[in-house]
Amino acid sequence: MGTTKIFVHGVPDTPAIWGPLIAALGELDGRVHCPALPGFVDAAPEGFPATKEAYTDWLIEQIRAAHAVTGPVDLVGHDWGAIFVLRAASLVPELVRSWIVSDAMIDPDYRGHPIARKWNTPLVGELVMALARPQALAKGLAEAGMPEDIAAHDAETWTRAKRRAILKLYRSADGLRFTGDWLERLADMPKHGLVVWGENDPYVELHFAEAFSERWSVPLHLERGAGHWAIAERADSIAARIKAFWADNPV
User: How far is the C-alpha of 245 from the C-alpha of 191, rounded, in Å?
Assistant: First the structure.
């Protein structure tokens, strides 16, 4: 039956960001699951707090459900999805076979990119969100390297509810600052991990990826000249590396 491979997107994306990579991966042994973060495509459950803890709990529910069917899962996360993958893998390592993170990590020295800091600031964040129209969002995402068709698709989900969820998420993490148990529990992550990075990511500089890779003794796959959405920009190259990584840890 193979394993379940769970792909977790980031902010302000949707599962559409995984389309090019999954196509490049081709036929896989097992099940592929690309859930949408609650509130990012469809309405979140009533009362969902949209905090980093709530999204982690949601991901762990996805992992438990998959594990019940196919056993330990392979996790792949990008941006905030990478952060949730690391956190979940550190909390339920017995349910995780391997993990891959792209263009985000949990690091004590990272203090967030400028947009994250604005979203974290009361009133300023609301103003930025109010001014961020879907058409402008699509243009900005495409200019930053996201494929134009995916940028246009994701901009269509730029609802008031989604914008509120994003503000709650960033404020639950003080922008993008992680402390305490979120850092300490990383020592419990499964050892079989991989970091994938776009060399020119403007939101998280390469040296953070290099430090994370060295700290946790996991390989770093660097895409030269690519940006934050390297997973879509360089899908063929990254797919080849991921398939080799999974082959190194057979079921």
Answer: 13
Model pLDDT for residues 109-155, shown as the tens digit of each residue: 998 899 999 999 999 999 999 988 999 899 999 988 899 999 999 99
Does residue 158 sit within a domain? no
**Does any domain span residue 139?**
no
State phi, psi for 193 to the nearest 5 degrees: -135, 165
Say if pTM beats, i.e. exceeds, 0.85. yes
Number of C-beta neighbours around residue 171 at 10 A? 17
Would 201 be classed as within a structural domain? yes
The CATH number given to whatever domain includes residue 57 is 3.40.50.1820
